[in-house]
Design goal:
Radius of gyration: 17 Å
Strand order of the largest sheet: 5-4-3-6-7-8
Shape: globular
Low-confidence stretches: 192-196
Helix content: 25-40%
Distance between the termini: 41 Å
Structural class: alpha/beta
């Protein structure tokens, strides 16, 4: 089992943790942002972290690992490699998560959904519904970083390699906005209504 100290060492070496004033995908603001996509620039880090996550689901008889959208394509691949199973990824089409490129969940298929960072779990919940609508079984949700502060409930086991408590505020409550010294940055890949 990977230690918290080792995970933090990897996050620092990979330049994952950013500090400033960030607009999160959830719409909240934060003074810290974990750019987990940077982990996947380095195969030695992604392999180690994804293997640690896969180990937590080793007894769940996973048939396929599915990553929502582009941010979890490499992660789904790495986790599935450790679990020795297939991997898919979902994509947004007309604003809705969908399986394309010949990927299909069949009735009874045991699916593990993975995401690099979970804050509210919105994308993962969309993919979970996609799996259920196809008759598949969501055996669990896995993430490298859990920044939900224990508030997200998927209705299935949720496990992460690195649970972390990072402050996040609604725009009206954001102390950084009130100070007005640090400009707001949207570092993620998904655009929110009303953002550029």
């Amino acid at each position: 089992m990977i230690t918290r100290e080792r995970v933090e060492e990897i996050l620092k070496e990979a330049g994952v943790l950013l500090e400033g004033h960030f607009l999160l995908t959830s719409g909240k603001h934060s003074n810290k942002y974990l750019q987990c996509a940077k982990i996947f620039r380095f195969t030695k880090y992604s392999e180690e972290l994804c293997a640690a996550l896969a180990q937590q689901f080793a007894d769940d008889r996973v048939d396929v690992v599915i990553g929502p959208a582009m941010g979890a394509v490499q992660m789904a691949y790495e986790v599935s490699r450790s679990l020795e199973c297939e991997n898919f990824f979902a994509e947004r089409e007309d604003g809705k998560m969908t399986l394309r490129r010949g990927f299909a969940v069949t009735p009874g298929m045991r699916c593990l959904l993975v995401e690099d960072v979970v804050t509210t779990g919105g994308s993962v919940k969309e993919v979970a519904q996609l799996v259920k609508d196809a008759g598949g079984v969501v055996v669990g949700i896995g993430s490298i970083v859990d920044r939900s502060n224990g508030k997200v409930d998927f209705g299935v086991p949720f496990r992460s390699v690195y649970p972390v408590d990072v402050a996040a505020w609604e725009e009206k409550d954001c102390p950084l906005c009130k100070e007005g010294k640090i400009p707001l940055v949207k570092p993620g890949s998904r655009k929110l209504p009303g953002t550029k």
